[in-house]
Each structure stands twice: as C-alpha cells, then as structure tokens.
C-alpha cells in the first residue's frame, strides 16, 4: 500500500480523502492556499504546505508548487480529488514522470474522455448508446444550423471541452441557435481555451442517471450501481440518490453493461463515472459524458455497496486487489445526498461569509462530509459547497424521513445556505413519488 499521500485539493473532499488515508495508516499531506490556512483539512493532515494565494491558478492549479510540495514532504502519491487538476491529463503525466503514483485513471483515458465529441464517437464505436448529434465540431454557425436541421429541434449546444454543467445552452429554433452558438463558443474559448462546439438532441423531459465504475488493477472494469442526479440547478446537481427510483432491474442491467463497455473501450483504471440521460417515456438512455475522477456524490454508492471508494482508488493505484469480490457486488438499502451550499435557497446565488453556528446532525443512517467548522469563513474564491449531508435507510421512504430530520437538525448560521430548499424538496410530492426529472427545481421555483 502507498505510505504517503499528498491531497491536491481542498475543503470537504480533501478532508474526506485524508480521513481514509489516516485510517489506512498512510501519512496524509495537505496543500492549501493562504485563504484556506484555517480550514479543518489543513489541521487534520499529518503535514501541510501552503502553495500560494487564494487565486486557484496560483495555488490549487499551480502544478509546479504542488509538485514542489510533494518533493519537499516525501510524498509517494498524489490524489487530485475532484475539480481543479483532477481531469488534467498533462498533470497526470507530469506526476508520473516525476516518479510519483497518480491516484486516478491513465492520462490517455482522461484525454480521450475530456473532449465530448471524441468521447461520443468512442462510445458509439463501443456499442454504448449516444444521442443524435454531431460527430465533428460545428466549425461555424452555418455548420451548426445545418446540423440542427438534420438532428431536429430542440438541440443542446455544448462546449466540447466543457464539464460540470458549464458551457451549455438550449436552442428551440434557428434564431435561438444563432444566439446560443456564439454564446457557448465564446464561453468555451474563455473558460477552456477550446471553442469547439457540439450540437446534440435536447430532451425536454429527461432524467440524469450515472453509473459508478472502477477499473481494477488486474484490468477488469466493474460497475457499482447507478445514481439518480436529476435534482439540478443550472445543469449542476443538488441531490443524488442510489438506487435510482426510475431504474427497473432490467434497465439497470443494461445501464451497468453499457458503463462497463464504456470503461473497457478506453482501458479504464481507477474510479470514474459514466453519465447518461434517460428518457422516462421510452426507457431509452444515452451516453452524456465520462467523468475521469471521483465524483462529489460518491458517498451514496459507498453506503449502498458498503465500500470505501477512496480506499479502492488507493488500492488500484498501488496495484492491489479490491477489498470486495467483484463477482458478488450487491446493493443494500437506499442512500440520498444533499449538497449544502453557501447560496440563497431561492435563486441559488452564492452567499459566502463567516460561519457563526455550525452543528451537524447525527443519528442512525446520517453521515456528514463537511469542509468547514464553526468559526471558519466561506470565501468567495472557490465553489460554494460547504458540506454533503448523506442519509441512508433500508428503503427510500426511510432514507427520506431521516433526511427530513437531519435537515431540520442541521444548525447553520452566517453564510446563506440552501437548507430551506431541501426542507421544501423533501415535502414535494413529485420528488416523493420518485417520478421526477431535471426540470423539478424550475417547477418548484
């Protein structure tokens, strides 16, 4: 097993990785910005190194500073968490070229899946269903208009290099397409340095369902069930649950088989997620993208399958067998994750600030993965996620009841927060029925 691990991230995911590392007897090393010096992940690590000022480009995305920290602390491996450098193939190559262990998929898999058009084409060749769309970038507006006419409106205009719900727009006709194409292309060039645009069929009523995969050290790819991620704002997730209330045993079998084919198509190793869109009217699903990293919502899979995905990541990186029998994976119960963000519960606009009160709920089936404690300050420099409230139960109904109680018991004052939204959602008839889609939040607002 790896003996020393540098966590190239911050907040709740850094704290989460450090927790597993210390349980396994691995020396945990944190890197942090000047703005994060007082956060729990820094003090809980065995060693911590400041890698720059608050600006992520000068700290958490500063490759030279992170590698220097690894060298000075004698780190054997680097875990990138999610976001920042986690899906940066050049960083993965640089880590390995420096003689360190990269806790993630191979750089070629990151590259292959990082471009949405290339990923679509690879998946189609592997027999994974893909939505009608372009097989090459829409080089200009005329090409986009021609592609949309062939696909049929409405269409989704997407940045080929985008991710995390960023760089997307919907066009219901040619006039809207002309506006969205220019908007998405400009955004993509500015944010990703790549203005390539993909045109794809847009489904007005759709569910977002993803499958957790793990590429093992022996070359096998296994699927650890699916997660429902349809409660979203601005195409970004707020709630995830497993198993999905929309997926029958027969559909689950098809989902998991397709996800395994997706992983095998790129020789996938370590943890990853195959994201899909599900048409609830037809039970057809289509490949959306593959996230070549650990997902924010991985805890719901951990609770349903009884595994520690961070530990499994470390074991794969070290060339070790998993702790579980890949041929005997079986889900038990139901789990739901609520993302507690520093944002107002109506318009979901960021509201950072000093935390005056922070009391986490406890009880059977309640887990909180948090990045902050009372007295910390949520700064405006990073994502608004403060904590993940994860609940589990024998059934979905029991998990929902525990979630209601946990939301009510979570005492949080200072920054704006979306706990009131979750209290509302957990009483919403559409959500309670399980028959909801990605439009549920907009219908509530």
TrEMBL record:
<dbReference type="Pfam" id="PF02785">
    <property type="entry name" value="Biotin_carb_C"/>
</dbReference>
<dbReference type="InterPro" id="IPR011761">
    <property type="entry name" value="ATP-grasp"/>
</dbReference>
<keyword id="KW-0547">Nucleotide-binding</keyword>
<dbReference type="InterPro" id="IPR005481">
    <property type="entry name" value="BC-like_N"/>
</dbReference>
<keyword id="KW-0436">Ligase</keyword>
<dbReference type="InterPro" id="IPR005479">
    <property type="entry name" value="CPAse_ATP-bd"/>
</dbReference>
<feature type="domain" description="Biotin carboxylation">
    <location>
        <begin position="1"/>
        <end position="445"/>
    </location>
</feature>
<dbReference type="InterPro" id="IPR011764">
    <property type="entry name" value="Biotin_carboxylation_dom"/>
</dbReference>
<keyword id="KW-0067">ATP-binding</keyword>
<dbReference type="InterPro" id="IPR005482">
    <property type="entry name" value="Biotin_COase_C"/>
</dbReference>
<feature type="domain" description="ATP-grasp">
    <location>
        <begin position="120"/>
        <end position="318"/>
    </location>
</feature>
<dbReference type="InterPro" id="IPR050856">
    <property type="entry name" value="Biotin_carboxylase_complex"/>
</dbReference>
<dbReference type="Pfam" id="PF02786">
    <property type="entry name" value="CPSase_L_D2"/>
</dbReference>
<protein>
    <recommendedName>
        <fullName>biotin carboxylase</fullName>
        <ecNumber>6.3.4.14</ecNumber>
    </recommendedName>
</protein>
<dbReference type="GO" id="GO:0005524">
    <property type="term" value="F:ATP binding"/>
</dbReference>
<dbReference type="Pfam" id="PF00289">
    <property type="entry name" value="Biotin_carb_N"/>
</dbReference>
<dbReference type="GO" id="GO:0046872">
    <property type="term" value="F:metal ion binding"/>
</dbReference>
<dbReference type="InterPro" id="IPR016185">
    <property type="entry name" value="PreATP-grasp_dom_sf"/>
</dbReference>
<keyword id="KW-0092">Biotin</keyword>
<dbReference type="GO" id="GO:0004075">
    <property type="term" value="F:biotin carboxylase activity"/>
</dbReference>
<dbReference type="InterPro" id="IPR011054">
    <property type="entry name" value="Rudment_hybrid_motif"/>
</dbReference>
